[in-house]
Amino acid sequence: MRDLPQATVTRLASYLRVLGVMADDGTLIVSSEELASAAGVGSAMLRKDLSFLGPNGVRGVGYDVTRLRARIESALGLDQGHRVVLVGAGNLGQALARYGGFGRRGFTMVGLFDRDPERIGTDVDGLTVRDVAELESACRELGATIGVVATPDEAAQQVCDRLVGAGVRCILSFASSSVEVPPHVEVGRVDLAVEMQVLSFRSARNAESDHGTAVASDHGTAVASDHGTAVAAVGGARSTSTGLGSTKNGSVIAP
Ligand SMILES: NC(=O)c1ccc[n+]([C@@H]2O[C@H](COP(=O)([O-])OP(=O)(O)OC[C@H]3O[C@@H](n4cnc5c(N)ncnc54)[C@H](O)[C@@H]3O)[C@@H](O)[C@H]2O)c1
């Protein structure tokens, strides 16, 4: 599979989500402007991202929604779908397991595991929580391709080791500590607190630049600088929120 820039991969995932909504609404063809606007990016960036996939749309006509979805799914390795096991069926794990949206996007939750006898055997949205002691054999039996770790930090490394031992090659960890895996395994880390810290930083930075503009306006460059900065700020906010993926790649879902 062709190597793609990390930020492009994240935006492709976002185009895929938008295309899914459009397909559900019965849209057959979409223009690059419409798709870009729905995904919150500029159309030049969208066209550049899609150019990594080879020729796609028809000039003056647009993109075939079904075909473009299939191309992106294939580029993201999603065309076979993924079978997800989740370890740590506590507050977070159960909330994730109950979320119905993963299935629609190609991720089927196939197994939940915990070590707490009180939780083992309970039902979470149709899946029975299994004893983590069975993890390796169950992962093989279930054909798991992604493991989600929602245990306390201190158990995360051991759980990852066991997932790797069971042949799982993609791990998404919610632990705040980093985990080590062999080179053939991909790890993503999600930390919502880091996301909020990044937002806080951006908000503080934007407030600072607004303040700078106000001062400039006071000195006679009012209209031009007000507009310039307002547009830049809006553009900045938009590109960062779409590129939230790039933030994710950089700091939230750390490799
Ligand atoms: N990254 C984030 O944004 C984010 C957000 C919320 C929570 N978290 C983290 O997610 C983790 C879970 O949080 P929670 O509120 O669901 O906790 P919780 O205590 O409700 O759930 C943890 C579950 O893991 C199980 N567990 C512990 N050790 C295990 C092991 N070795 N094997 C299998 N299961 C094991 C426990 O029995 C429990 O059911 C914590 O580490 C928390 O810090 C991260």
UniProtKB/TrEMBL annotation:
Gene3D superfamilies hit by this protein: NAD(P)-binding Rossmann-like Domain, Winged helix-like DNA-binding domain superfamily/Winged helix DNA-binding domain
Pfam families tied to this protein: CoA_binding, Put_DNA-bind_N
Domain CoA-binding: start-end pairs: 77-178
Region (Disordered): 234-255
Top-rank taxon: Bacteria
Annotated positions binding NAD(+): 88-93
Compositional bias annotation for Polar residues: 238-255
Signal peptide range: none
Annotated SMART domains: CoA_binding
Location(s), subcellular: Cytoplasm
Quaternary context: Homodimer.
Protein name listed in UniProt: Redox-sensing transcriptional repressor Rex
Phylogenetic classification of the source organism: Bacteria, Bacillati, Actinomycetota, Actinomycetes, Mycobacteriales
